[in-house]
Amino acid sequence: MASCVARAGLAARLVVVVALVVALVLVSAGCGDDASESAETCGDASAVAATGWALSTIDCAESQDTGYRNGEPFAITVVTVDGEKVERETANAYYTMAQAADRDGIQLSINSGFRTMAEQERLYACYVNCNCNDCNLAAEPGFSNHQSGHALDLNTAASGVLGWLNARGAEFGFERTVPSEDWHWEWWGGGPGGGPCGVEYAGKSLGISGQSYPIVSRGPVTVAVGETVTGWVKLQNVGRGTWKSGVVWLAPIPRDQASPFASPSWQSATRIATPAADVAPGEVGEFALDLTGKDEGESMLSLGWVAENETWFADGPRGGGPADGYFAVAVQVVAAADMPDAAMPDADPPDAAVSDAGAADAAAPSTPTPARDAGSTTAPREERDAGPDPITCSR
Staple 48 to which of 23, 28, 255, 334, CB 3.0 to 4.6 Å? Predict the structure, then answer.
């Protein structure tokens, strides 16, 4: 474990646990199009494989293509989510929604996104000639909403996904537009904003390997009154801007309220740590996370990131996440006399071990996601010419 006690003699007495779990969930779903092709399906359902943590598969590298809406072409900027091309702002909205679902214990993933004209022509030819793709219905090329980049086929066959989308999808601007296709959801604006693509300040979790503490299920951090436990978290810069040392800070949530766990190493009771050096896009920043016990009792320390005098990472349009409180630590403060004799867990996950220096690669704003196993459910999928993709359906 990568935590240590500031005061000599108490190193073996601390239990340090961060609220971070990366769940591996087997998910699959049907893929469709829009109202004009409600019977369209996607290839061999058995080929749908596990997508680990959906949020880790977003790639904000942009490419340009030609989209279509009602037969009219337009220039479209797409990024990649779960291996599928998606219109950039739709991807941001989906990412924000996926974060919220993840906090509720629901794993979202995309099975089909943007389709090029060539891809839609193939599906339409299969339908007209009835010689491929099981002769499934397909929209005329130029008229499928998948060609707009705003239509997504989601993994609604996975446990809890459809119910969650029906209950909360509209909060994020997503609407189910085809009654016969529960997997087909579209975004044309709305929602809280945010998302990492095309924004200045955004961070991505590195999972368990990006923090010095083991998982929350092993109990809270136990620290004696007046003592300090030291650790760190890491975050990858997936925005456009460089994180300047002294400008970007790890901070306690609620915002700008003094934390009861402030340590001498903190900049202030409302600012925890800044990276030692500037963090360029694509690089990983490390943030020290030391906790000092003050008042006896157990509570949660929620965390967020802020670019001072510019924006909080959770706030659009300049911020793209993580959301406030996406990373949290459970802390129990006890009297020194009540500290357990052997508080350390027996076996930490190998990739959660702390560096010898006690300050590993910093703050991966990891998602405090409870471990879960949604099982694997299947639904019809579109056929790919080159065989089904192990993660997503054909476009």
Answer: 28
